[in-house]
Amino acid sequence: MFLKSATATDFVAFLQAVSLKMFRSKQASRTLSVAFLGALLLICGCKSAPLNVKQNVLADDLYAMRSAIDQFSQDQGHVPKALHDLVARGYIKDIPVDPVTGSNKTWLCLIDDEDDSGDLGIVDIASGSEKPESDDGTYTKCP
Q1: 65: helix, coil or strand?
Q2: How far apart are CA 81 and CA 138, in angstroms?
Q3: Global pTM value
Q4: How many CB atoms lie within 10 A of CB 51?
Q5: Domain hosting residue 78, numbered range
Q6: Per-residue pLDDT tens for 53-100?
Q7: Closest by alpha carbon to 138, among 118, 119, 115, 120?
Q8: Looking at the 3D structure of the chain, how many domains does it have?
Q9: Which of 48, 52, 90, 126 is 20 to 30 Å from the Cα of 63, by its Cα?
C-alpha cells in the first residue's frame, strides 16, 4: 500500500531516515543500495502497466469480434450489416467497450461486400482511438 500513496521522493526520505545507522557498515550499505534500486525499478515499471493492460484487453476484444464476424459470415452466408447483428444472433454477448476510448460506440468498421449477395457489411473492425489504413477500403464509424 505504501507505493500507491507515496511518491519516489517520500520513499527516498523514508530510506534515509531508517538507514542512518545502517550506512556505517559496508554490508548494510550494499543491502540498502539494492533495496533502493529495486524500489526505483518497481516505481518506474508501475507507470507503464496500465497502458499494457489496455493494449492486451483491446487485442482480446478485437480478436473476439473479428472471430464473431467471420463465424457470422460463414453461418449466415453474408457479412453483418452492424455490430448489433452479432449481438442479436448470439455471436457476442454485447459490444465490448473500447478500453482506449472508454466507449462501445467508437469502434471503426471496414465496410465491404465480401459475400456473393453484393450487400455491404462489416468485414473488419478497429479501435476508434486511431484511424487504421487499409488497401481494401476506408474504416468508418460502425453502424
Answers
A1: helix
A2: 16
A3: 0.60
A4: 10
A5: 2-141
A6: 888 888 999 999 999 999 999 998 888 999 999 999 999 999 999 888
A7: 120
A8: 1
A9: 48
